[in-house]
């Protein structure tokens, strides 16, 4: 960046220096002299660091996007356009085309190398409480995570557009709560990304049955199915940031389904509400514990649709070229669930523009597969990007400069939501195989604090 400064970015330094001199004295001569002096200077260290941080974020999100596209196009076996072979023949050497065709014809047997080795949990020891581990509060982000609330200059550099744009994520990713987490501060390094990533991700990842002008435009699968997909992805890729955050969201989803979460909620007295909450938390805990082995889970933990989804998602992430082998089962279970929900009155079938029920159900299935592939690809890429950048979990924040910054740490939010100790233990051991190996070698392992787990923890 410093080498490129003279030819590519020095003009801006000259312009700013000239304008500063003009504003101070109003003399054309002084403005010209200031511009000339600025032209002879190297790129300041602070400006260079800001550019490097932005480049790291940009490159990580470029990787994210193309991981996502690869999962989608390979997993769904989307064909090239009819005109594409002719275009390739006209601009690419034959040797390169043949190489690309060999890659495309590969069965994908080597794809497993793109994910870390699976960690097999001692579920019996976790269930009995013999293994008890708190989440590790790891530090070491690749780029600084600076709050725009504490450094308002970030908001003034582009007249507030970056901070204003990122508020979609601040509020949307936390479901209406003010919680500008680590991902928000990471995006601040790339102002255009900060403005466009949140409104792109929210309709795909979180929205529920969105409708526009009588037509369903988003939220084709339930929040539960989405969170199951995210959990399976982050267990498979061992992505700490995604697994930690979406475990909390998963627990909230099951509380919703048992009527003790977000509205609309059924009426119930305190005893019934307490019992429902306990069932919801136990169900969510079982999902976290057995997501790698749904066949071994207690009865009722996973539906047939859940199991079909988990199988397909794992294939999409580990061996996307073979994901189609599981797509038929997923489609059949989705279709059966769609019809049950429509009969029960909890799903409205989009018949617009008068296409008939059979065509509407077929179209819904296509929408659901497309939505699941896109969200799975996006979250696969996001987990890998956050791992590369070593994005940290949020710490407790206190009021700064009048902003609404009084909020808990991520793990304090765990306590409020009800994420259970067994779920926390399972996740940390998945992310910390060195600690798991150590505990398995001890005759009577003691509970492990987050600070102790951090000594061998991995992002």
Percent in helix: 55-70%
Radius of gyration (Å): 25 Å
Shape: globular
The major pleated sheet works out as: 2 strands, antiparallel
Arithmetic mean pLDDT: 90
Total number of beta strands: 2
Tally of DSSP helical segments: 20
Beta percentage is under 5%
SSE-based structural type: mainly alpha
Instruction: Write the H/E string, N to C.
Output: HHHHHHHHHHEEHHHHHHHHHH
Looking across the biggest beta sheet, what order are the strands in? 1-2
Please give the oligomerization state of what you see: single chain
Low-pLDDT runs: none
| Span of the ends, CA to CA | 28 Å
Strand and helix layout:
Elements: H1 2-25, H2 28-39, H3 45-75, H4 84-91, H5 94-105, H6 123-127, H7 153-156, H8 161-172, H9 182-187, H10 191-205, E1 210-212, E2 215-218, H11 223-237, H12 240-257, H13 270-290, H14 304-318, H15 324-344, H16 357-388, H17 410-417, H18 421-431, H19 433-440, H20 450-453
Antiparallel strand pairs: 1-2
Helix pairs in contact: 1-2, 3-16, 8-10, 11-12, 11-14, 11-16, 12-13, 12-17, 13-18, 14-15, 15-16
Question: What tags apply to this protein structure?
Answer:
single chain; mainly alpha; two-stranded antiparallel sheet; 2% strand
């Amino acid at each position: 960046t410093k080498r490129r400064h003279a030819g590519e970015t020095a003009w801006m330094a000259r312009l700013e220096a000239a304008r500063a001199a003009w504003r101070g004295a109003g003399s054309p001569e002084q403005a010209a002299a200031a511009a000339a002096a600025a032209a002879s200077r190297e790129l300041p260290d602070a400006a260079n660091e800001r550019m490097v941080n932005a480049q790291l974020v940009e490159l990580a999100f470029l990787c994210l996007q193309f991981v996502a596209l690869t999962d989608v196009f390979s997993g769904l076996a989307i064909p090239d356009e009819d005109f594409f072979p002719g275009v390739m023949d006209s601009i690419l050497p034959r040797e390169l085309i043949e190489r690309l065709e060999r890659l495309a014809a590969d069965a994908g047997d080597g794809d497993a190398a793109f994910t870390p080795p699976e960690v097999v949990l001692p579920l019996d020891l976790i269930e009995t409480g013999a293994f008890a581990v708190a989440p590790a509060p790891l530090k070491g982000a690749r780029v600084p995570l600076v709050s725009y609330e504490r450094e308002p200059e970030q908001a003034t550099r582009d007249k507030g557009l970056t901070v204003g744009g990122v508020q979609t994520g601040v509020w949307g990713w936390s479901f209406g709560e003010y919680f500008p987490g680590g991902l928000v501060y990471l995006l601040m390094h790339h102002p255009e990304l900060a403005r466009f990533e949140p409104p792109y991700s929210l309709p795909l990842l979180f929205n529920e049955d969105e409708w526009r002008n009588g037509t369903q435009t988003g939220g084709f699968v339930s929040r539960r199915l989405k969170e199951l997909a995210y959990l399976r992805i982050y267990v498979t890729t061992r992505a700490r940031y995604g697994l930690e955050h979406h475990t909390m969201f998963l627990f909230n989803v099951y509380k919703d389904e048992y009527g003790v979460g977000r509205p609309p909620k059924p009426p119930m007295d305190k005893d019934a509400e307490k019992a429902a909450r306990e069932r919801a938390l136990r169900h969510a805990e079982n999902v976290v514990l057995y997501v790698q082995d749904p066949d071994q889970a207690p009865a009722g933990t996973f539906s047939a649709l859940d199991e079909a989804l988990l199988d397909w998602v794992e294939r999409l992430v580990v061996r996307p070229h073979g994901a189609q082998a599981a797509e038929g089962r997923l489609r059949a279970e989705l279709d059966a669930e769609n019809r049950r929900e429509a009969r029960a009155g909890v799903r409205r079938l989009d018949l617009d523009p008068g296409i008939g029920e059979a065509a509407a159900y077929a179209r819904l299935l296509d929408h659901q597969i497309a939505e699941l592939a896109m969200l799975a690809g996006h979250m696969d890429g996001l987990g890998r990007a956050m791992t590369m950048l070593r994005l940290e979990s949020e710490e407790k924040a206190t009021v700064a400069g009048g902003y609404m910054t009084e909020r808990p740490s991520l793990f304090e939010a765990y306590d409020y939501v009800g994420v259970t100790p067994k779920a926390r233990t399972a996740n940390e051991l998945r992310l910390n195989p060195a600690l798991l190996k150590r505990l398995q070698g001890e005759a009577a392992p003691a509970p492990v604090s987050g600070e102790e787990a951090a000594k061998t923890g991995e992002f």
